[in-house]
Specification:
By secondary structure, this protein is mainly alpha-helical. The chain contains 11 helices and 9 strands. The strands form 4 sheets. Strands 1-2-3 form a 3-stranded antiparallel beta sheet, with helices on one face. A hairpin with a 2-residue loop joins strand 2 and strand 3.
């Protein structure tokens, strides 16, 4: 549903059909569309459509109007609108509403629906076990944490209420070596021909999985004599880390989806709906993989550890320098 008015609507688009007229006309059309389609999910340009329609119904004396699957249960407001400050910028968080029996996706307050599509959201729902409505407005880190919690549950591991892993002590020299971030080549100034690009597929997630970088195995006591991380000398336990089990299925699934996209595009007359589904799922998984590295260095991450962040960067620097020598 898309609104085009303010406190009351004189024009509304629902299921691709634009309706104009009195409040009664609009409410009748909305109610008919709800009863005809009986949708599980309401995608709204703004969730404020929900209370506004109910207010219009009250003002117009339309007593039987309802968006709910249980007409005797009214909509609920889950959270009020608010403002917040993040990294020096002030943002706005819209109010959130609930319609019993249906999920609401607010296009003005969703990351994943805007960056992917409904198929991408449903893929992440299956992995995170979060409800559709909650996942739609959740951040990448929130969804990643939910997926990690599922893995912890499968392992029978107690999930911490808050982040509790303190940073290991390290001398100033080690801190200088570790806190370096990624590596950027200094290009030679001038005009260059025959320039080649070398692209790594999911570099940081693959480093995590192939090098077994995980908060539960980095700098372990049982292998303190090992120096597994180049340039830093951190040890990594031989036991498989839980973060590997979180990310490897996502990496594998995205590789399979990308292969399916290539096959579909090679067909005569590719199925555009199928491509949209695959692209949405691939995009959703990509965002989780993009965030998995940075989230290790996030102070509030339940399963984060700064030493993992440092180790991933160290491995990445070594890979880039090796690639330069080889190519």
């Amino acid at each position: 549903m898309t609104e085009t008015g303010q406190d009351t609507y004189s024009e509304l688009t629902i299921a691709g059909e634009t309706v104009t007229g009195s409040a009664g006309d609009i409410l009748t059309t909305v109610q008919a569309a709800i009863e005809s389609h009986d949708p599980d999910i309401l995608v709204c340009s703004t969730s404020e459509i929900v209370p506004t329609l109910y207010e219009m119904a009250t003002a117009a004396g339309v007593d039987d109007f309802s968006l709910s699957r249980w007409p005797d249960v009214d909509y609920q407001q889950l959270a009020s609108r608010s403002t917040y400050a993040s990294y020096g910028r002030v943002g706005h968080s819209p109010a959130r509403y609930n319609v019993p029996g249906r999920a609401i996706i607010d296009e003005s307050n969703t990351f994943f629906y805007g960056e992917t599509n409904l198929d991408g959201i449903l893929d992440l729902v299956s992995r995170s076990k979060k409800p559709v409505q909650e996942l739609a407005w959740a951040s990448i880190g929130n969804v990643l944490t939910a997926i990690q919690i599922c893995e912890a549950y499968d392992r029978g591991v107690l999930v911490p209420w808050n982040s509790w892993r303190h940073e290991f002590y390290k001398p100033m020299g080690a801190l200088h070596d570790a806190d370096r971030g990624g590596f950027i080549f200094a290009p030679e100034v001038g005009l260059h021909e025959n320039v080649h690009e070398l692209d790594f597929s999911s570099l940081y997630p693959n480093i995590i999985c192939t090098r077994n970088v995980s908060p539960d195995v980095i700098r372990c006591d049982c292998h303190s004599d090992h120096k597994d991380v180049p340039g830093l000398g951190y040890s990594i336990c031989d036991d498989r880390g839980y973060l590997v089990d979180v990310l490897q299925p996502i990496i594998d699934a995205r590789d399979e989806i990308k292969a399916a996209i290539r096959r579909e595009k090679k067909r005569d007359g590719p199925d555009e709906d199928r491509l949209a589904e695959l692209e949405g799922r691939s995009g959703a998984l990509k965002w989780i993989l993009v965030a998995c590295f940075g989230y290790q260095g996030f102070s509030n991450a339940k399963f984060g550890r700064i030493e993992c962040h440092e180790a991933i960067n160290a491995f990445a620097r070594e890979i880039l320098l090796t690639a330069k020598l080889l190519y």
